[in-house]
Amino acid sequence: MSSSSVEDIPEQIKDLFTQDGVLLKACLGRPVTDLNAIGMLCIVQNTDGTKCIEWRPNDLITIDSDTQDHEWAVVNTIGRRQRTLSGNLTADYATAKARIIKIPLEDLKTFRVTRNNQQMQFSTKPGVWQTTFYFQHGNAEIFVAYLKNHVKSAKTRHDRNTYMVVEPNIESQVLNKSFAELDIFTENTTDVVWNLVSNFKQRPYETTLEAFSKLTDIVYYGNEATNGKRDVSEEVAELLTKSMSAMDEATTVTRNDEYEVISVKPTLPPRPCIPRGTPLSTEKWDALKDTQGRITEVDGVKQLIFRGGVAHSIRQSVWKYLLDYHPWTMTHAEIRAHQKRKTEEYFSMKLQWRSMTDGQESRFSEYRDRKSLVEKDVNRTDRTHPFFAGDNNPNLVVLQDILMTYVMYNFDLGYVQGMSDILAPILLLLNNEVDSFWCFVGFMDKIVSNFDMDQAGMKNQLLQLQQLLTFASPDLAQHLAQKDSGNMYFCFRWLLVWYKREFSHRDIFRLLQVRFLLSALQSNLLGKQLGFKDNTAEGIYHQIVSAPHLNDQIRVILGHQPLNISTSTQSDDDPVEPSTSQVNGEKSILGQDVDEVMYTRVCRKVTPNILT
Amino acid sequence: MSSRKKVLLKVIILGDSGVGKTSLMNQFVNKKFSNQYKATIGADFLTKEVIVDDRIVTMQIWDTAGQERFQSLGVAFYRGADCCVLVFDVTAPNTFKSLESWRDEFLIQASPRDPDNFPFVILGNKVDLDNRAVSAKRAQQWCQSKNDIPYFETSAKEAVNVELAFQTIARNALAQETEAELYNEFPDQIKLNANDNSRNRDGDNCAC
């Protein structure tokens, strides 16, 4: 692949222009570990006079400047934003140079700038955007301006942001002429940008900052200036609608003489309507078991439940399976024996703390701390719900006993605030101490990373949420970042206790049930769910998964395997790897009466004659 | 006085779980007390406008989770704080002993410019209860040893001293704010480089 061949780097190359703060977002054929690294995007001249666009990871640059390699002259003219680097590269690179990306200008066919000058993509082959860069400072236009000194390009008719390379420019010093040809700027009508380019040579740092802030002003305050002050919520709502509904912008393929120019708007495809199935009834649930009580079609049953939920009358029973208390493949008799063992195990652990004397306790501070936290929180958990209301409520004692026994079950984790919130609906539903304990254990196993000592699990989830949002709704993500909320900490409670505090108990039953069925990674999607009841969240999931610009980062967040390529081609019918998870991959039956079709399918596998 | 523009004060409430942080905030902002608060998860905030020395000041009060485990998120919440309120429960000596580490943790994570003079206020809460275990004298001594931190004995339940405490919090935060501004302006005034001066918002204004 021409964009990534690095073995033949000449020993002596000259930097013609460099720009730092450029993140490698995607590159065909590169391992995912190479992606998302910050580096420097350059235009370089090889000894033979040919030119390349070259990207170097920052760690590589740092190593070289740190060691004061004398063949490097690092001229830091403009602080952190821009750095001009001149001099000759040496062979010291050997080990790290494999990560350098080179795009020979002779091979460059098209490039385009998207997302408010934040993103730039290059292609040397019609039909594929092989390399995608993200400009941290949103100043891709500067790179474009310099690139145009070295290649002759024209905008495509159908997409103002896409440029077709007509021929590489032979002369290297056509600076003034090139600036005059910068149609990108005249079309943007902003003198700001024009001045930016002409001032850039004299005062690069100030110019960049100044122009950037002006551009930001236009982007963020443009509306306000013309319409006057608007309600913030209205603004957000509009951003949301805008980014979520801009789906009809179809992908266009334009034939222009010999080149095929492809423009793919980085928007999501239309949201599929995911009909909600009917809840699993008692009869159907019983029919899913064989005569001994075993459930063999586990994945199918899980899908049925995920699609349509369950009738409240069987929820108690179903949760024991979903929370890994009752193994699916056990017979009725085996479950009875299993339950007996688990009951004994529970009470022996309960006895461990119940039999602790005051003296022991006084010398066991770690236990005492946990106990005191449990006591404090039990007394303030769902006290407005009739089940836990009033003084001397026996259910509070059960709540406390289960949490204390959990402390003995997993002393290292102990009690973390939020656990009482998670246990409360389980106890409310099952109304049985032992069952509730083991179901609580099962749920904790699924979300244990929420309670990491260093909060790593929560931080990671918030980061993934931010990345998903940036992908699905860049405008909203940008708005949040502008309001100092890019860290998504306002979602902390939602994620920690799974919306337990935000919904009524009835809704929580349904929401948690869906959560039980999601793998940890997929949970984030529902984390930003916008209308759980009608499966909007799942619709959004499908939108993201089938988006043409889906990249490995997002793929991984959604629980898919990375593909190691990041831009999918147009011709792919299904650019997404088949899902390995249990809750999706049912595309073929979407739009039909989902639950009936699935139920039939599941039942056929269980007992072929059940429906006839 | 040059500090008329800044009227938002960010106040952080810290302290062990169950000492009454949420209750104090709600008593001050909403004049209400409830037995049914839930454990705070993450952080919450409420705002209230108060008048301090004829100035209208908006207090943005951040209520945080008490469990130590959640402290690693603190840095995001603590940043830009103008005052830190440390709360303990006068019936629970452990919560009093924790004050020191809450204070240190705050200073590390928020890293205020002038840590020695950063305004803290200590509240000994739940004085309405009978089983008091930390005496006022002991608390006061500790506060004196820490650069004379103001100390109030409060009851969020019975609204004892809550208003007074928050008035002091606002006043001290404001004083800090004013000092900070003087601090900031100073270097600009003595700049000798004419080129730099042209970029000052205030132009060539004299310091006096």
Spell out the blueprint of helices and strands.
The complex is a heterodimer of chains A (612) and B (208).
Chain A: E1 13-27, E2 37-46, E3 51-57, H1 58-66, E4 72-78, E5 82-87, E6 101-104, E7 110-114, E8 119-123, E9 131-135, H2 140-147, E10 151-155, E11 162-168, H3 175-180, H4 183-188, H5 191-200, H6 204-227, H7 232-245, E12 252-256, E13 259-263, H8 282-287, H9 298-308, H10 312-322, H11 332-354, H12 358-362, H13 365-378, H14 394-409, H15 419-430, H16 433-447, H17 456-472, H18 474-482, H19 492-496, H20 505-517, H21 523-527, H22 536-545, H23 552-557, H24 594-606
Antiparallel strand pairs in A: 1-2, 1-9, 2-3, 3-6, 4-5, 7-8, 7-11, 8-9, 10-11, 12-13
Helix pairs in contact in A: 5-6, 7-18, 9-24, 11-14, 11-16, 13-14, 14-16, 15-16, 17-18
Chain B: E1 8-14, H1 21-30, E2 43-52, E3 55-64, H2 74-78, E4 83-89, H3 93-97, H4 99-110, E5 120-125, H5 136-145, E6 151-153, H6 162-189, H7 194-197
Plain-language structure description:
The complex is a heterodimer of chains A (612) and B (208). Chain A is of the alpha+beta class. Chain A has 24 helices and 13 strands. In chain A, the strands form 3 sheets. Chain A has a 9-stranded antiparallel sheet with strand order 6-3-2-1-9-8-7-11-10. In chain A, strands 4-5 form a two-stranded antiparallel sheet. The longest helix of chain A is centred in the middle third of the chain and has 24 residues, at 204-227. Residues 1-10, 62-93, 170-233, 243-257, 523-533, 565-594 and 606-612 of chain A have low confidence and may be disordered. Chain B is an alpha/beta fold. Helix content of chain B is 36%, strand content 21%. Chain B contains 7 helices and 6 strands, in the order βαββαβααβαβαα. Chain B has a 6-stranded mixed sheet, with helices on both faces. In chain B, strand 2 (43-52) and strand 3 (55-64) form a beta hairpin. The longest helix of chain B is centred in the last third of the chain and has 28 residues, at 162-189. At the A-B interface, helix 13 and helix 19 of A face loops of B.
